[in-house]
Amino acid sequence: MRKIGTFLFAAMALCLVAPAAFAQAGGAAASTPTSWVVITSGIAYAIAVAGCGLAQGKATAAACEGLARNPGAAAAIRLALILGLVFIESLTLYMFAVLYLKL
Description:
By secondary structure, this protein is mostly helical. The protein has a domain at 35-102: Up-down Bundle (F1FO ATP Synthase). Helix content is 81%, strand content 0%. The protein is built from three helices and no strands. The chain has helices at residues 2-21, 36-69, 74-102.
């Protein structure tokens, strides 16, 4: 686990430092400044989608386990699973809407 954390930290450091190494010198031909709203919105959306994916996976795994333990409750478990997946997915769609309202 420690090796994975070290690798992820090194990868993040490389992603943050590498663009500065290739930056152009200021002058008449300098490009427009970076819009941090776009960058941070993209990162926030990626985090929201990752959280949504993890939550949907856990919900589906729990529903499958519940069905395996009690097949007689299949209808109730299926209804709860679909309702939960709809709520989880709606969070990602709301984040998507906020992303485009900010831009």
